[in-house]
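User: For my dataset I need records formatted as: sequence, then structure tokens, nothing else. Please produce one.
Assistant:
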Amino acid sequence: MVSPYSLSRPGGVQGQVVGLGHALRELGHEVSVVAPDDHRKVGEVAPDGTFVVGRSTGIRTNGSVAPVALRPDAALRAGRFVAEGNFDVVHLHEPMTPLVPYGCILRARSPIVATFHRSGATAWYTALRPLARWAAGRLEVRCAVSEAARATAQAALGGEYRVLFNGVNVARFANAVPYPTEGPTILYVGRHEERKGLSVLLEAFASLAVPATLWVASEGPQTERLRAAYPPSQRIQWIGELPEDELAARMAGADVLCAPSLFGESFGVVVLEGLAAGCIVVASDLEGYRAAAGDHALLVRPGDPASLSAGLAVAVEEAAAGVGRASASARLAVRRHVDDWSLERLALAYTDIYKEACSSWRPRGAR
């Protein structure tokens, strides 16, 4: 299982790599993870089975900062590890991202399954087009986490894709002990950068007429500026990066989970996590969020503070009254919906794809 992004930085792709690896191990498979990491020793296998290929450098792309390993020796280490590892399958996530996946594609002696996560055009596809098209030709099976991700990859590379999804650790959020609150509470979880829409949420919350507390989790390049503009108070609590257990407890304790992203969301893991924890979810009406939520979230216009404030008011009032999305019947329907997106179900789907890749693959010299 290969991640081009550093496991020392929180991110959706990294979360899927680690979570899917764990779910596959639970099914009895042996899984090695190959990735950059900024805090562990390079060139060795960590106690959790991760082979650390190098350190990361933050590169701006798609409205975010991608922590990728750009040194050629990181790609060489990754390629050598997969070539010598006697693996049945090499599974690349975001396979066209520089540089680690290219080292694996060049040296792999096993079938390669690739999962495309990105939604929206990226300069990488343009800058690396000849190399990317060559590399894509070596992929045995191409998967995408959503229709939006499939469309992005297909426009850049052509080819056919299996549309799956991103998995959620449902039990972690559904069984979490709720963090104590002192009234209606809204939770934001996401990197503090323009694409994630935190500034829109803060503006919307400032005009919210109903009483509520806003928990702002995570950090990012906009943290200092936004915290200065909206300083900590009884209404706004900046709670920073959280360990997994506390994050699940905060979601279970919150009444509302807000996902106000502006663009670039190919899927909605945070939406599903909020639903699994029992939150009413208010999210931007983006294709990825819409697909993940089904009809179980309140969707609002992206980048519109007034629309978001109105949506939050409805959600807080529903939570207080126990009606609408907060009713018992709605929560039962949500749980059934979320179970369909579990990491366990995703691991089973990939197991079938791995078997298919192994049965159809022939070494390049034998083709």
